[in-house]
Each structure stands twice: as C-alpha cells, then as structure tokens.
Amino acid sequence: MIRYIIRRLLISIPILLIGSILAFFLVSAAGNPVAELKAKPGTTPQQIHDLEVSLGLDQPIIVRYWRWLVNFIQGDWGQSIALGQAKVDIFSSVMRALWITARLVVGAEILAIVLGVVVGVIAAVKQYSIFDYLATSSAFLMFSMPIVCVAVILKTYGIRFNNLLESMGMDRWLSTVSPASGGFQGSFGHQIFQYTGTYLLPTLSLTLISFAAYSRFQRASMLETLNSDYVRTARAKGISQRRVIFRHAFRNALIPVSTLFSLNAAALFSGAIVTETVFGWRGMGFMLVQSIRTFDPYMLMGWLMVTATLVILFNLVADIMYGILDPRIRLA
Q: What gap in Å lies between CA 69 and CA 307, rounded to an integer?
C-alpha cells in the first residue's frame, strides 16, 4: 500500500506539470491582464509599461512560464495586481480562501454522505415501500433543482425567519454572510448561537444537493449487490438478514459511492461557486470568479494548481478506499 501511494504521488508530478503548461498557455492566450488598466482614465503609458514589465508580459510566453514555474516550486506564487494598485500575495490569498471553503464543505459533505448512505441502504432493503418512494421523490426533487434555486430559497426564508425573530424582540439568528475573520466572540453559548446561525443555511444548501446524489447511488449499488450470487449464497446458508446486509452487501455497495465522494469533494473544495456567491463567502469559488472578472492570470494559476492537486489527492483517496472496502482489489 505504501509503495502504491508513493508511486501514485510520483506519477502525479508529471501530470501536474503538463496540466500547468496547458493551463498557463490557455490563461495567457485568453486576454491581456492590463487591458482594463489601459481603459482606465488617467492611466499613463509609463504606468502600463511598468506593470507589463512587473508581470513579465514583455517576455516570450515560454520564458514567462519558466519563471513562474521556478518561483512556484520555491514557494513564491507571485502577487496579484488589481488595476495596478493593491498588491496581494497569491499564496496567502489561496490558502485563506481554501480554509474558508473547507470550513463550509467538510460539514456539508459529512452530513450528505452519512444521510445519503443511510437513506440509500434503507430504501434498497425496503424496496417499493413508502420510505423508498419518499426517499426517491426527495432525491429526484433535489436533482431537478439547480443549486442556485436551493440557495436562494433558503436565504429568502432565512431572512424572513430573522425578521420574525426580530419582531418578537429576539436577536437575528441566521446569517447570510461569511463569518468574520476574527472568529466568533462572546460567551460559549453566544458563540454556538453565532456558529450555527452562520453555517446552517450554506451547509444545508450543499448538503441537500449532495445528499440526493449519494442516496441514489447508494440505493442502486445496494440493490445490485443484494441481487448478486454471493449474497444469495449467504442467505441460502441460513445467515441472518442483518449479517447478510452489513457483512456481505453493504461493504461492496460502498465502492461506487466512494468514487462519487472523491469527485464531489474535489469539486466542492475547488469552490462551491454558487453557494459562496449567494451567501457571501469569500472562498475558492469567490476567488475564481474574481480572478476571471479582473483577468488575474497568476491568481488563476494558483487556483488551478491547488484545484488540480486536490483532484489528484481525492482520486488517490478513492483508490485506497477501494482496497480497504474490497480485499479482492490488489493495489500492486
């Protein structure tokens, strides 16, 4: 297992290198990062020239890429320059945005996968029951609704609920903006009040969409496993239904869900763009939108490299989970 992990990590290095080359050339060909500055009134040609030199735009693209790669490997991800004014360290900005997104995504993914797996297993075991029909209907409803609709609906009713609390002389509870950088203040009870009110709506919006996928995948995988030959053999031997489900069927039925988890988690850590935008979270999704809007190539490259690394790591986690869930899979 250790040799397999090391080999996969070593293989990931040329993958990241090729990905960085393609991304850098595509980002560089997408437009001119100083075009907005040129259109700004009062900008002198000298200011534009100085900015182009500082960004390396006066050099051939292959030279710019090599300089960026060497600096990136050394830990210098460069600086973001918005309209030639404020300079922002890219590494610090990306790590801060990743931490904000992680705080939102981890709780939502844990809730979604636990609820999705439990509901999917029960729906498969009690196929065509009332519970199965309710779970299926709920999952299809969540599938059919775009995440923006779920987020906006939750935010709208959250604001109405806050207005109701305020009319009763109580404090507003549900927050529609990201938590302050200084954290939650006050007594322990007040911090819990702030924490739950801040995280409830965005976490719930992500959980509902992910839950629908997990429950449907788990139900389909569980049904296929329950109808397999080795499960029928276990039942024919007189093994109890509980043991058949949890010892023989459930473990193998988790393999497709682990694949879905790795892909979904990597996508969410890359930035829950809609949810972060609706609820005002300045995470990876917000960073991507801002980088594209202001056409900040080096900030985009920082976001892309972190995203690519997350995808590789979560795919590695999925492969390791395969070997744990099914001993027949050999990671040789």
A: 16
